[in-house]
Design brief:
CATH class of the largest domain: Alpha Beta
Number of domains: 3
Radius of gyration: 30 Å
Shape: elongated
CATH architecture of the largest domain: 3-Layer(aba) Sandwich
Oligomer: single chain
Number of strands: 11
Helix content: 40-55%
């Protein structure tokens, strides 16, 4: 007997109707009938009594059902235990971030080098990240905000210069640089409410007293790029994103770089910064600490690449 036979039997025994059981199991009625017949043949006993055109579970069937349900439950428990054992052998690090693209460039090379790790991550706002750290739900937080919380330790790990992404046919495309005040009436592509990039956008404009003419609130980086490529509007875009997606990437996974241009913004505060957050006075586990050190070092190299890129395009 096999597991399918047992599952078919349990379903028929509970429903006491072969065609309905077949519908529940998403198989043909003949498949069910054949499986039950083979099962009864192997057991050497009938499990159902024929009453007219129907079959009803008999005493032998009821006894067999009770034992099989217990065996199947133990089998499920064994599967769960095996899965838990597998996960427990992996080295786990839990983190929360308010901007997933910030950490992706670090997690991918980390897991390539250390496949025995499990990185558990989730999206949270900065206040939620603080709460999760204080309650011990996560090891590390990644935020665009430098906190001054007395129980949270803040470590900067990435700083990206933000420029203006425009279509090469746009009226601003010929400019060597722009000022934020130049964008007062220009159709602008912003980000969804509550996102780290939305806070950054609002902060930039607030500093110069400009209310942007927002025509789209994007929910992803790819949407921003495609909208700018379609000349719907302009958008803020970090030099790291420009370097990774258009200069360095041979695949050009979004749109051809010859459709777009990034223009330096004159205001010196136009940077996108990210910070690693940990609970002050609380020692990270060895696994979390190893991940933390790896991330700090790999983003130091990434930031050096981006700084060299800015120099190469005279954007410093």
């Amino acid at each position: 007997m096999d597991l399918n036979q047992l599952e078919y039997f349990c379903t028929v025994a509970k429903i006491e109707h072969f065609s309905k059981a077949a519908a529940v199991m998403n198989v043909s009625q003949s498949t069910i009938s054949t499986a039950i017949a083979k099962l009864e043949e192997e057991l050497g006993v009938a499990l159902f009594d024929k009453i007219g055109r129907e079959k009803r579970l008999n005493d032998a069937g009821r006894t067999f059902l009770a034992n099989i349900e217990q065996a199947l439950e133990q089998l499920d428990q064994a599967k769960d235990a095996a899965a838990s054992t597998y996960i427990s052998k992996k080295r786990c690090v839990s983190l929360a971030t308010d901007c997933s693209e910030a950490i992706t460039k670090g997690i991918i090379p980390f897991l390539r080098s250390h496949p025995n790790y499990l990185i558990k991550q989730r999206y949270e706002t900065t206040p939620q990240i603080v709460k999760s750290l204080l309650e011990g739900e996560i090891d590390i937080g990644i935020s665009h905000v430098a906190l001054s919380h007395k129980r949270i330790k803040t470590q900067p790990f990435l700083s990206e210069r933000v420029g203006l992404l425009v279509n090469k046919q746009h009226v601003l495309a010929s400019r060597e640089f722009i000022q934020l005040s130049d964008l007062k009436d220009v159709p602008f592509i912003s980000w969804e409410m509550g996102s780290a990039n939305r806070f950054m956008t609002e902060d930039f404009f607030h500093r110069v007293g400009v209310i942007p003419n927002v025509v789209l609130e994007a929910i992803s980086e790819s949407m921003v790029i495609e909208a700018v490529a379609a000349d719907i509007g302009v958008a803020f875009f970090p030099d790291g994103g420009w370097y990774q997606n258009f200069v360095r990437s041979e695949s050009k996974r979004f749109v051809p770089s010859n459709e777009l241009r990034i223009i330096p913004i004159k205001e010196s505060f136009c940077y996108r910064n990210f910070y690693l957050l940990t609970l002050d006075g609380h020692n990270l586990s060895d696994d979390a600490w190893f991940f933390y050190i790896f991330i700090v070092h790999i983003f130091e190299a990434i930031e050096n690449e981006q700084r060299d890129f800015r120099k190469s395009v005279q954007w410093e």
